[in-house]
Design brief:
The protein has about 650 residues and is an alpha+beta fold. It has 24 helices and 18 strands. Helices cover about 45% and strands about 15% of the residues. The strands form 6 sheets. A 5-stranded mixed sheet has the order 2-1-3-11-12. A 5-stranded antiparallel sheet has the order 5-4-16-15-14, with helices on both faces. Strand 15 (about 575-580) and strand 16 (about 585-590) form a beta hairpin. The longest helix has 27 residues, at about 1-30. It starts with a helix and ends in a 7-residue tail after the last strand.
Length: about 650
């Protein structure tokens, strides 16, 4: 036994020396300015104000989050004795004695990390947890732990214990997108923190250890069990008596309905902007998205690309019970995104049918969905027109290919919808009628590798699977393994109105600090995916889809030039339409929320798209003079006669690189 103790002591001494040397080395390369900036941001003004520009170019406030996640700042006295004692007892009893690091617990945690003596063992002090909360860095590596220790010790030199503890209590994650014990007290119990009972205070302390696991809404039994362990820690630390503990243990968990946070629910657009900014902030400054959130919540101003009129119309129609009840009654949902046809920027988005009643619910407009034939213009027709391999009058064969089954029997593949085959036809008619047989032949001309590269590298569709999404079904028929979000698909279609260029997706212009300093500006990363002439030619072809093709039900064409493409997944579980005018590009998806379910047997989504876009354009066109009206461009195209397979002579547009022989 003595030999074992000596061995363990030697190992711990070696670890201490090693950790100390590593810490000294790491410290020489650390930049503490980010820690201090985040600390000050967390202490400072909270909330974010979102703006949108009106027709005159003036910025108008559309939303503010001053009380969405945290209420006013709570001092240690306002937090109350029960909460302070609970956190100190459960998290860091030596807080007022150590210099930011509890070396005994750190070495024990390090020993456990190496030898796996216990399933879990936390060695972080409250100061170290502040570092994690403001930096968002929570990797389980020795290097990260050493950096955290160094930063914690520096924090203790720069700030008082009271200041550190107060900050911790006001920024600690409390689950359900709540930060700080003050906001948590109000949301969960409808009280200020000083008014909490001992049991309620212990409940909040327990939640912080694992907010998802101890969520009082979803896991009340585990939440109560953790609360009782916190009460024991307070008893063991001499902060409460046995009698107080027993009374608190018997108290029933009573939390308010989580919908009781008030009416300050952000729109689908604001949540989309927020996610984009958090992503870009973390990339710009090399910090985690948790740290980026502290910056965003620090009294900032966000200037969005939202068109308030468009967003309002979207929300009105998606919340219209009479319109949407057939879809919801069948267990289906819808989502829609609208982009400016000239800049490509997002101007409106809704993530589900019905009124948005909560924060951070699933946004179906951002979730990958199977696009079906809506992928064909991007994956097949545009690339082949661009290279001159086909032209609108090229003759293609509308007959099934044949695939050999496992039993050796050949079967026709694919099937058209409807199950009609017209033999020889033009490319224009094949796209207009969405012929699957022709799409598979075009796939053979391009090859899976080439198409995959066009979609992933060119159009920036990041949801593709490099293994599963290179086959004929995925790329010719749009039956992608995961799919593509309706937002991204809509952004890709703006290439047809933007002379062949597509961006990475813009929802904001800039982010300013509370002092007016520019923290972030959207970086345009437009990529040329098509020649300008090809983009105009694709618009001409897609106009025929709306004129007398699969989207002929669209009435918008009677008031403004309109083009677009329909799409349906296998079994009709997803239906998509992306259409556009010289002013706006909009995509809509309809299907079951989980990606499976009953077939969509109607065109309700197409009708909803049409009604929304008609109102958007009627309002817009009523403000324009005749000289300001736009039409689809045919610049760079040549009008030529050609002979159809039926021997008819027709006229159509061609680009110079794809003129018929």
């Amino acid at each position: 036994m003595r030999k074992f103790v000596l061995s363990v002591t030697a190992i711990l001494l070696l670890l201490t020396l090693t950790l100390g040397g590593a810490a000294a080395y790491i410290a020489s390369g650390l930049d503490f300015s980010a820690d201090e900036a985040l600390f000050r941001a967390a202490l400072g003004e909270r909330g974010t104000v979102y703006y949108a520009y009106d027709e005159s170019g003036a910025a108008c406030e559309v939303y503010r989050t001053s009380s969405a996640r945290r209420s006013e700042w709570f001092s240690l006295e306002a937090v109350g004795e029960n909460l302070v004692n609970g956190f100190l007892s459960a998290e860091d009893r030596e807080f007022f004695k150590h210099g930011g690091v509890n070396y005994k617990r750190t070495l024990a945690a390090l020993f456990n990390h190496i030898f796996k003596a216990r399933a879990e063992f936390g060695g972080s002090t409250i100061t170290q947890q502040v570092i994690k909360n403001i930096s968002g860095d929570n990797q389980h590596t020795l290097k990260r732990k050493a950096e955290e220790i160094i930063r914690a010790k520096r924090l203790e030199r720069e700030h008082s214990k009271e200041e550190i503890l107060e900050l911790y209590l006001n920024i600690v994650p409390m689950g359900n997108n709540i930060y700080g014990v003050g906001r948590a007290s109000e949301v969960y119990f409808g009280k200020s923190p000083a008014e909490l009972s001992l049991a309620e205070a212990a409940t909040l302390v327990g939640i912080t250890n694992a907010p998802a696991r101890f969520d009082p809404y979803r896991h009340p039994e585990e939440c109560v069990a953790k609360r009782n362990r916190v009460l024991y820690a307070m008893l063991d630390n001499g902060k409460i008596s046995e009698e107080e503990r027993e009374i608190a243990r018997e108290e029933e968990l009573r939390v308010l309905n989580k919908r009781s946070e008030g009416s300050n629910i952000s729109s689908w657009f604001i949540e989309t902007v927020e996610a984009d900014i958090l992503r870009d902030l973390s990339q710009e400054y090399g910090i985690s998205e948790s740290a980026a959130r502290i910056i965003l919540d620090g009294g900032t101003e966000v200037y969005t690309t939202m068109n308030r009129e468009v967003q309002g119309i979207l929300e009105k129609y998606f919340g219209n019970t009479d319109l949407i009840s057939p879809a919801t009654g069948a267990g289906h949902n819808m989502a829609m995104a609208v982009c400016d046809a000239n800049s490509g920027a997002l101007v409106g988005i809704v993530g589900a049918l019905g009124e948005k009643r909560a924060e951070k619910i699933l946004n179906l407009a951002l979730s990958p969905r199977v696009p079906g034939s809506a992928l064909k213009p991007l994956a097949l027709y545009a690339p082949l027109l661009d290279s001159g391999e086909i032209n609108p009058a090229s003759r293609v064969l509308d007959e099934p290919l044949y695939l050999t089954r496992g039993d050796g029997e050949e079967r026709p593949y694919p099937r058209n919808s409807p199950d009609v085959y017209d033999g020889e036809m033009t490319v224009r008619d094949a796209l207009r009628l969405s012929k699957n047989t022709v799409a598979c032949r075009l796939y053979d001309s391009l090859g899976g590798e080439r198409i995959y590269k066009i979609l992933s590298d060119g159009y920036g569709i990041s949801s593709l699977d490099a293994k599963a999404d290179k086959g004929m079904a995925a790329l010719a028929l749009g039956q992608l393994s995961r799919g593509v979000s309706i937002r991204r698909l809509t952004e890709c279609y703006t290439a047809f109105t933007r002379d062949g260029t597509v961006g990475r997706g813009q929802s904001y212009h800039k982010l300013l600090s509370s002092t007016g300093e520019e923290l972030l500006r959207y970086r345009t990363e437009d990529r040329a995916v098509l020649k300008s002439e090809t983009a105009h030619l694709m618009t001409d072809l897609l106009s025929s889809v709306v004129e007398d093709g699969t989207a002929r039900a669209v009435t918008l064409k009677s008031i403004v030039d309109t083009a677009g493409k329909t799409g349906t997944s296998s079994g009709s579980r997803d239906k998509t339409f992306v259409g556009y005018t010289p002013y706006f590009t909009a995509g809509i998806w309809c299907g079951s929320e989980g990606g499976s379910g009953s077939a969509v047997n109607n065109s309700l989504h197409l009708m909803l798209w049409d009604r929304i876009m008609v109102e958007i354009h009627e309002r817009l066109l009523s403000r324009l003079d005749d000289g300001e009206l736009r039409s689809f461009s045919t610049e760079g195209l040549l009008l030529r006669a050609y002979e159809t397979p039926d021997g008819e002579l027709e006229y159509g547009y061609f680009s110079p690189v794809s003129l018929p022989d």
